[in-house]
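*** Residues and shapes ***
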Amino acid sequence: MATVFSPSAVFSNSTATATTPRPPQSPAAPKTNLSIPLTKQPLATLVATAAAATILTTVPPSLADSPSATNYQLYYGTAASAANYGGYGGNSSKQASAEYVYDVPEGWKERLVSKVEKGTNGTDSEFYNPKKRTEKEYLTYLAGFRQLAPREVILNNLALSDVDLQDLIASADSVTSEEKKDENGQVYYVYEIDGVAAHSLIAVTCAKNKLYAHFVKAPTPEWNRDKDMLKHVHESFRTVGSY
């Protein structure tokens, strides 16, 4: 009679007389083949790959998010009377006879003040942002003032000849004022008016028997965007010459 072999006996060790059956095994997980193993890439290749990945995954900042520093031009104001005021010409020839100065942001435009306007409300100079004309700075002056009145009185008197200032004060969330002195001891009243629709900074002082008031105004969106620049313009105002 022929002998019958089990499948396990065929793969058993030749010296064994019998073999225990093996339990079924799960197939091995497939391996992922890498076309170029990273461990075998040269160091220079790895560095270049990492740098390229950084460039591709990093979003470059917008130019609007990184504005360059603002440049300024120094304006010389003469505070000439309406009778002697032409309203034209550059500021370079005014330096010798200047009574006050302030900074003007690069790109801002000068609005020529008429003799009538100068004679009625004392506006002597004005500059504005051409992208938003209501973002501006200007100076008014009144003759016959030897010294400053109380701060509250000064602000109320300024508002009498400025309808926009009246409206801003009436609708303001807050109005603050303080007294400051420069290195020469000259007194300046500084006001800040925070309104719902606009913001205003005002500096007032007396010199040469005149009262000078420098205004910086901007709608709220422009104030929030240009706050640092507008504060710089406000703080740059000062009178020059003898007091």
Remarks:
- The mean pLDDT is 78.
- The helical segments are 7-10, 43-57, 115-121, 151-160, 163-170, 220-235.
- Residues 209 and 221 are 38 Å apart (CA to CA).
